[in-house]
Amino acid sequence: MKKSVLLGTLTLAGLAGVAQAATLDDVRGRDALNCGVNPGLTGFAAPDASGKWQGFDVDFCRAVAAATLGDPEKVNYIPLSGETRFTALAAGEVDVLARNSTWTYSRDTDLNLDFPAVNYYDGQGFLVPRALGVTSAKELDGATVCIQTGTTTELNLADFFRVNGITYEPVPIANDAEGRQQYLAGACDTYTTDASGLASVRTTFETPDDHIILPEIISKEPLGPAVRHGDNDWADIVRWTFNALVAAEELGVTSANVAEMAAAPTENPEINRLLGTEGEFGAMMGLEPQWAVQAIQAGGNYGEIFERNLGEATPIGLARGLNAQWTQGGLLYTPPFR
After folding, report:
1. Cβ(53)–Cβ(47) under 8 Å?
2. What does the alpha-carbon distance between residue 46 and residue 257 come to, in Å, rounded to a whole number?
3. Is the dihedral of CA 138, 143, 148, 152 positive or negative?
4. 102 forms bridges with which residues in the sheet?
5. Could you tell me whether strands 96-102 and 33-37 are parallel, antiparallel, or unpaired per DSSP bridges?
6. Among the three residues 162, 196, 219, which one is the final residue of a domain in this structure?
7. What single string gives the DSSP state of each residue in 179-191?
8. What per-residue confidence (pLDDT) applies to 14?
9. What's the whole-model pTM score?
10. Do residue 172 and residue 197 come from a single domain?
11. What is the spatial distance between Cα 153 and Cα 231, in angstroms, rounded to a whole number?
């Protein structure tokens, strides 16, 4: 009995040691991560005046590149529309889709995608001109609505109006840029998308205070990175890179102190396992011992990334809300590094 158990353990260990994620091989072979991002959504993913990509989702791409390649700059940012994003991922044009995409049943099963993590808990809202005099989405009966096609937003909109016994006229748009343009041109009474996206769009207006986001949140939108189904090793890397950023915030590990804390084991074994000074956790995913250190150094822990791109001190001005740590009343909770 002991011998068979031992052989089984060795077999599993051997398989784990030699298994190589096909996507990881591709990333290392080209020496760059192909990351699918939004074509332009301030705070999440958008090129700045010099053409350098910035944002919450961009920083996650950088963290994955740092964890796998040791360099956060080794990223090819590939802008994808709402209609092309999943096709591009399935076709292998990108290694990971980091484009404010909602994890849904059909995307997980019918499209054969995997969502390794939820990196932003959101919900759909409505943006209206203050002059419209509307204070509730339930007052939008007969309104024209700018709506991005091929999204969960489109389906949620139909459900909300049906449940509330009111009607609307859709104004189809292809992306956030067109939605902003059409809305400001008066082609629609209201623009609907994720509330975070509305906050982002509103900051680009000349007079943001002339527009309000209505109080109703009509859906659950768990946003997160997506990968192709079937490469569990790669999904693990994406999942645990995100978990590392969340755990770092909870444990007080920041971009400023991570190098010092990783120089020698600390008194906290969870920190040691995270930073590679205890155990062989990097090797379990085919990565270097300090893969998480590199990911944290790329842009900081989850809290640093959130505050820099989306937080209350930015023009977008989002509170942490559901995206706070579980110890602060939010939903961020990572499994243990053990």
Report:
1. yes
2. 28
3. positive
4. 223
5. parallel
6. 219
7. HHHHHHTTS-SEE
8. 36
9. 0.88
10. yes
11. 29
Q: Is residue 13's pLDDT more than 50?
A: no
Identify the residue whose tokens are 């956030």.
176
3-state secondary structure of 226: strand
Is residue 258 helix, strand or coil? helix
What's 89-101 look like in SS3?
A: HHCCCCCEEEEEE
Helix/strand/coil for 314? coil
Among 172, 180, 85, 188, which residue's Cα sits nearest to residue 132? 188
Contact call for residues 161 and 168 (beta carbons, < 8 A): yes
Judgement on whether residues 203 and 240 belong to the same structural domain of the protein: no
The number of distinct structural domains making up the chain is 2
* CA separation, residue 328 to residues 38, 65, 282, 307, 323 (Å): 30, 29, 29, 15, 9
9 phi, psi to nearest 5 deg: -65, -45
Mark whether 136 and 246 lie in a shared domain: no
Same domain flag for 237 and 113: yes
* 144 and 116 both lie in a single domain: no
Residue 208 domain flag: yes
321 exposure class (CB count in 10 Å sphere: 0-12, 13-18, 19+): middle
292-306 confidence digits (pLDDT tens): 999 999 999 999 999
> Does the pLDDT value for residue 86 go beyond 60?
yes
> According to the model, what pLDDT value does residue 240 have?
98
